């Protein structure tokens, strides 16, 4: 079997399913387990730190682990940062079969910190029976020093090991998500997968095939393609009037807009039709024309101002903002997940003979859209409320990245077309 520790909603499992392989996932979170079950993935709901290792001995060909790493997190109260020496001590002890977790846990500022040492407990136990054949681990970039410590242990057992930082965008993921990766194998040279994409497309050369340009959010979501709709926001109803899809103060999703009929297939750009004047654009850019407060606003036609949409990661001043024509920044959702929003700007300022357009209000990203940007399929069965779904998505390994990492161990080739995005 392939054992997946801290399996989450199934990023690794989704990649394996594409290859026709299944794993057994150990996961504690209730809603991540429900998502996995709905996706048809084998799941044991358990605390990885409490589960015994003996059921897997003599049966495990591969070990996958994406442990929580509070000791390296820069978010929240950051108490776990003080636990890093304790985590390193736990890894050192578990590597020789010495279980000092109870004593070390009592000294931890964050009780979750030692979870980052749990994969070593499983690795040591499995190694006593000559397993696993390979290992794949993933976490945030700051965990690289811990992976360096991990790497030394299987090397001593005869593994080939590689660890380093990879950018998911280099492998076709529409997101510049950087992650610390550790790969180990008993039967082949461990090395990172060959990047398939680059920020700027590269032509074929004598040294091999070129790389495609990074996949944009527009491509991944199917917005702007000739056979797919892009959002057409009508702030005052369509040409025939009607209620406003996005009245003042609301934050409707783009998916809601599609369901309400306010999305139209306009591959040449995003248009705004309005029957009411707004001040957002004027406040930021200045108006070319002045209009009395009680004067009627014009209706902009399909040839009027086009909108440039971007994804803003949160509402902080230094938030990452990326246009649809680029990959998203790293998707991370905390307790304020809905602050990740689509924001619009006029593609060009109005001319002297046009009126100041109404800028659409920010529109919250949906779980479906966030999942697509993580390379989960459009119909992935996310369980739980919005917050629970966003938490799962933000913590998941992008399946397409996981596929590139796992393919050499399984003796298969990655076909990006198998990782369906927009549907």
From TrEMBL:
<dbReference type="Pfam" id="PF00145">
    <property type="entry name" value="DNA_methylase"/>
</dbReference>
<dbReference type="InterPro" id="IPR001525">
    <property type="entry name" value="C5_MeTfrase"/>
</dbReference>
<dbReference type="InterPro" id="IPR029063">
    <property type="entry name" value="SAM-dependent_MTases_sf"/>
</dbReference>
<feature type="region of interest" description="Disordered">
    <location>
        <begin position="235"/>
        <end position="270"/>
    </location>
</feature>
<keyword id="KW-0489">Methyltransferase</keyword>
<keyword id="KW-0680">Restriction system</keyword>
<keyword id="KW-0949">S-adenosyl-L-methionine</keyword>
<dbReference type="InterPro" id="IPR050390">
    <property type="entry name" value="C5-Methyltransferase"/>
</dbReference>
<keyword id="KW-0808">Transferase</keyword>
<comment type="similarity">
    <text>Belongs to the class I-like SAM-binding methyltransferase superfamily. C5-methyltransferase family.</text>
</comment>
<dbReference type="GO" id="GO:0008168">
    <property type="term" value="F:methyltransferase activity"/>
</dbReference>
<dbReference type="GO" id="GO:0032259">
    <property type="term" value="P:methylation"/>
</dbReference>
<protein>
    <recommendedName>
        <fullName>DNA (cytosine-5-)-methyltransferase</fullName>
        <ecNumber>2.1.1.37</ecNumber>
    </recommendedName>
</protein>
<feature type="active site">
    <location>
        <position position="69"/>
    </location>
</feature>
<dbReference type="InterPro" id="IPR018117">
    <property type="entry name" value="C5_DNA_meth_AS"/>
</dbReference>
